[in-house]
Amino acid sequence: MVPEFPYARLRRRPDVEAADLQAHDATDLLLVERGLALAAEHGIAGAETAVIGDEYGAITLALTDAGLVGIRVHQDLATGRRALALNAQDLGLAGFSSHELDPALLSGARLVLLQLPKALAELEEIADAVARWAAPDAVLVAGGRVKHMTLAQNEVLGRSFARVQAQRAERKSRLIVATEPLPMPADPPYPVTARHGGLTLVAHGGAFAGARLDIGTRVLLEVLADRAPQLRRSVADSAGSARNGAEPGRSSGVVNGTVIDLGCGTGALAVSYALAHPDARVIATDRSAAAAASARETVAANGVAGQVTVMHDDAGSELPDASADVVLLNPPFHLGSSVHTGAATRLFEAAARLLRPGAELWTVYNSSLGYRAELTRIVGATEQVHRTPKFTVTRSIRRG
Question: Which domains does the chain have, with CATH numbers?
Answer without folding.
Answer: 7-181 (3.40.50.150), 192-397 (3.40.50.150)
